[in-house]
């Protein structure tokens, strides 16, 4: 889990100047599972509150390769071009949810949303891990 935390902090260093993380031991980890049908759609949640900054990563089943598929560090959501192999991705306006439409079987794997919340008492970080299983239609 710590490598993810380091990745988040390194990647976000510039937009977070002045943001102080008081106690990284209070990182929260939330795990869930989802099942969807190939060709259909699925919504993966990244908390019930909009984070200040978030990064969605994907690790395909059977691999250790984690790639960013969506992120928002204060200037609106971005979808890197390599994310299309899992289906058509979108992040609805004013949310941190990841929507995958036209779901491909290659979308099966672990999705991780790294969410940073800027609060009055300092930064709070939550990792949302969602295991997605894709069934044939």
UniProtKB/TrEMBL annotation:
Residues 1-18 form the signal peptide. The keyword Signal applies. Pfam families: V-set (PF07686). Keywords: Signal. InterPro entries: Ig-like_dom, Ig-like_dom_sf, Ig-like_fold, Ig_sub, Ig_V-set. Residues 24-126 form the Ig-like domain. SUPFAM superfamilies: Immunoglobulin. This is Ig-like domain-containing protein. It comes from Liparis tanakae.
């Amino acid at each position: 889990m710590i490598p993810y935390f380091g990745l988040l902090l390194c990647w976000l260093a510039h937009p977070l100047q002045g943001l102080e993380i008081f106690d990284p031991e209070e990182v929260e980890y939330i795990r869930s599972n989802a099942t969807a049908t190939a060709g259909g759609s699925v919504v993966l949640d990244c908390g019930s509150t909009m984070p200040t900054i978030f990064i969605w990563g994907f690790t395909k089943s059977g691999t250790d390769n984690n790639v960013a598929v969506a992120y928002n560090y204060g200037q609106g959501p971005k979808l890197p071009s390599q994310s299309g192999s899992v289906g058509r991705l979108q992040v609805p306006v004013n949310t941190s949810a990841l929507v995958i439409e036209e779901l491909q079987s290659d979308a099966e794997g672990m999705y991780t949303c790294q969410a940073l919340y800027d609060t009055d008492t300092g930064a709070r970080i939550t990792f949302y891990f969602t295991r997605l299983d894709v069934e044939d239609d």
